[in-house]
Amino acid sequence: MLGMKIKHINYLITVAFLMASCTVPGPSTSTVVPTAALPTSSATGQEVSADILWLKATAIPFDTADPNSNLEDLMLIKKMIGNARIVALGEATHGTHEFFQMKYRMLEFLVQELGFNTFAIEANWPEANLINNYIHTGLGDPAELLKDPYLGIWDTQEMLDMIQWMRVYNENPSNSQKLSFFGFDMQGDQMARHNVAQFMQKVDPQAAQQIADDYSCIPQSSTGCQMKLQVVYDWLGQHQADYTAASSPDEFIQALQSARIVIQYGDYASNNNNYNIRDRYMAENVTWVLDQAGSDARIVLWAHNNHVGMSGEENLVSMGDYLRKQYGNQMVVFGFLFYQGSFNAWWNSSLQTFQVDPPPTDSYESFFYNAGLPRFFLDLRTLKTDSPAADWFLAPHPFRFIGTNYDPYSAQLYFETAALAKVFDIVIYFQDTTPALILK
Question: What is the C-alpha separation between 235 and 252, in angstroms, rounded?
Answer without folding.
Answer: 12
